[in-house]
Amino acid sequence: MRLAISWAGGVVTAVRDGSGPTGFLLAHGAGTDQHHPSITRVRSALAGGGLTVMSFNYPYAERGAKRPDGPDKLLACHRAAADALAGQVEVLFMAGRSMGGRIGTHLVAEGYPVAGLVLYAYPLHPAGRPDKLRIEQFARITAPMLFFQGTKDPLSRMDLFDRHIRALPNAEVEVLDGAGHGYRGGGWDLDSITQRYVTGTLRWIDRVPSGTTG
């Protein structure tokens, strides 16, 4: 089902799939939009697993632009999308691929209530800049978190990931051995990464006290 999400910055489109009491807000990464196969396949498969899944476009993606909007605009749009889904479900999880996951963590760090966060290929630092860690918000997040981490991801050096993310008391990690930041290489492709994301996510949500896929 296609939806329109209105907020102070304008209107963006969203797609909702599935039904059930548990909602799953899925945000796209910087180089894609909600219609990229990496999003549509995960959305469809998780909906088939019993979740109410909603993806949405950030404003720049809605315009067809390549350069992401500023952080404040991304965050405001993300909040509006979360509000739209939260009103339709009993429990809300937030998730995102790369940048979309990062914006979700900032929203939850500001106090947005969720049952948990799922981060697909979290961008721990910019490519080639491991000194610029994106970690300050995690000290303010108490919700359970699940990270899917490729060991060859140039945006998340593994030793730094282990030190700053795996060590968090509320974080679980699914390691994708050999995977990079994209969907191919190291023995992985879009099909195998999607399958790993979906099976791992559904299994984890079933173990989170307020989550259910039934």
Shape: globular
The helix count comes to 6
Strand order within the widest sheet? 1-2-4-3-5-6-7-8
Quaternary structure of the protein? single chain
Q: Please indicate the percent range of residues in DSSP E strands (runs of 2 or more).
A: 15-25%
What distance separates the N and C termini? 21 Å
Would you list the SSEs in sequence order as H and E?
EEEHEHHEHEEHEH
- Please tally the β strands and state the result: 8
Radius of gyration: 16 Å
Regions with pLDDT < 50 over 5+ consecutive residues? none
Helix content: 25-40%
Strand count, sense and closure of the main sheet? Answer: 8 strands, mixed
pLDDT averaged over residues: 95
Helix/strand class: alpha/beta
Structural account:
The structure is a single chain. With 214 residues, the chain is of the alpha/beta class. It is built from six helices and eight strands. The protein has an eight-stranded mixed beta sheet, with helices on both faces. Helix 1 crosses helix 6 (190-207). 39% of the residues are buried.
Q: Which descriptors would you attach to this protein?
A:
alpha/beta; eight-stranded mixed β-sheet; globular
Quick summary:
The protein is of the alpha/beta class.
Which helices and strands, and how do they pair?
Elements: E1 2-7, E2 10-17, E3 22-27, H1 37-48, E4 52-56, H2 59-63, H3 71-86, E5 91-97, H4 99-109, E6 116-120, E7 145-150, H5 158-166, E8 171-176, H6 190-207
Parallel strand pairs: 3-4, 3-5, 5-6, 6-7, 7-8
Antiparallel strand pairs: 1-2, 2-4
